[in-house]
Amino acid sequence: MLQPVVRLVRLNRLPYAELLALQERWLRRLQAEPGSEALSAAEAGALLLCEPAGPVYTSGLRGGLTPEETARLRALGAEVRATGRGGLATFHGPGQLLCHSVLDLRRLGLRLRTHVAALESCAVRVCELQGLHGARARPPPYTGVWLGERKVCAIGVRCGRHITSHGLALNCSTDLVWFEHIVPCGLVGTGVTSLSEELQRHVSVDEVIPPFLEAFRETYKCTFISEDSPN
């Protein structure tokens, strides 16, 4: 049986709005009627990887930011955007690996909950490959990947007609001060960390991408086809 194929699109540093626009183009492509798009039967979608070019706070379907909070965060010099993903408010910015997985779960043989667990497994594996063996996923209501009581990777996805979007945000060398202006993901009494913070050395997004792709390929049992970055 042939492995499903995922288009790998590496975007380098990119404004968050441009990432969302590219994601929407891939969603339309996967949601199109059969025969109207040039997708082979083996193609399951795309993996969009980037590092945000600037600070942005995002809220999910459950909200998380009042108009007053939005004005306060914008006054800090950050962008604020509402998104269609699950979850509450979080932060994206330089030093963070953003992975938006636009996938047809039927072609991968996955359910939504299995997909979320697979994303968590990928982030746990990256932590292990970097030498952090205490990383783990936690049961609901906690999503993402944790090192003790500190979240190193946030996960929020959207799914409609078996097609997912959004994905994960892994803190590599993120300036963690930005998280102090919100309650990340609505979880009180927990903290946020990064690979750089835990390893006490600078860990770049570029350093993390190869082990992340290795973990993704193994977890999703897929092959990659590289696609030229549009930026």
From TrEMBL:
Active site positions, chain numbering: 185 (acyl-thioester intermediate)
Main location: mitochondrion
EC number in record: 2.3.1.181
SUPFAM superfamilies: Class II aaRS and biotin synthetases
Metabolic or biological pathway, per its Swiss-Prot or TrEMBL entry: Protein modification; protein lipoylation via endogenous pathway; protein N(6)-(lipoyl)lysine from octanoyl-[acyl-carrier-protein]: step 1/2
Purpose of the protein: Catalyzes the transfer of endogenously produced octanoic acid from octanoyl-acyl-carrier-protein onto the lipoyl domains of lipoate-dependent enzymes. Lipoyl-ACP can also act as a substrate although octanoyl-ACP is likely to be the physiological substrate.
Designated name of the protein: Octanoyl-[acyl-carrier-protein]:protein N-octanoyltransferase LIPT2, mitochondrial
Organism per entry: Panthera leo (Lion)
